Amino acid sequence: MYEFNYHRPATLAEAMELHKSAEDGQYLAGGQTLLPTLKHRLAQPSDVIDLGAISELAYIKAEGDGLVIGAATLHADVAASSEVRDAIPALADLAGCIGDPQVRNCGTLGGAIANNDPASDYPAAILGLNATVITDRREISADDFFTDMFETALEAGELVTAVRFPKPAKAGYAKFPNPASRYAIVGVLAAETATGIRIAVTGAGPCVFRAGDMEAALGTALAIGAELPALSPDSLNSDMHASAEYRAHLVGIMAARAIAAALA
């Protein structure tokens, strides 16, 4: 690990000022990605700004017909929240299957989506539920937020502060986890939303994506036993854990399970 200046601000305004004044500052959320990166000397920021003490970034609240969740909210808190369970059970289920208890009690919503790991669970929730990502500068729609592997629409220094989730009519999540890391080899969130059917797939490709052909086949409602078109393996991930062809097959299986969960 290279030497850096460590800061633990108490307010969002203080954190942003520290980042602005740093030569090469980097925000630290739950540390599930940044800390291993620093330990392996794959990054050399001049300053690390720990967001863990900023209480204004950690909350879950009802807003209209949906939920707003602060960026520093832990996965474990989302999974255990009665408000989340009542409004969007699929979101609580998804948060509860991220990693293991240690990961869930350290990792945060904002950190997970800003990192945009191709096998992360939360991007499927953001895209599948048609959420809105709120930053210190603007609001970004789910369809515009995730751009490529480990890349998002966030600009340099831009900080995720919250996510607004509209309440779907129905939603379900299913994933085939890596048995060691619990990352999704394939994960699918299926939802009936105010803007139509959305099928979001994580783990299968370089970046979370919507399965448009499946959405079109379902039409206006989720249905058990619906004939879902097969996904092409072209451009899907292929590695030691699963081939692109196997991932394409798993997308169909996980989509059917997600739909069944949504209708249960």
Structure description:
Among the domains are: 1-56, Uridine Diphospho-n-acetylenolpyruvylglucosamine Reductase, domain 2 (2-Layer Sandwich), CATH 3.30.43.10; 170-263, CO dehydrogenase flavoprotein, C-terminal domain (Enolase-like, domain 1), CATH 3.30.390.50. The chain has a 5-stranded antiparallel β-sheet. The protein has a 4-stranded antiparallel β-sheet with strand order 11-12-13-14, sandwiched between helices. The chain is built from 11 helices and 14 strands. The chain has helices spanning 12-21, 34-39, 75-80, 82-87, 89-96, 101-104, 109-115, 122-128, 142-145, 212-218, 244-263; strands at 5-7, 25-28, 47-50, 60-62, 66-70, 132-135, 139-141, 146-148, 151-152, 160-166, 170-177, 184-193, 196-202, 209-210. The protein has 264 residues and is α+β, with helices and mostly antiparallel strands.
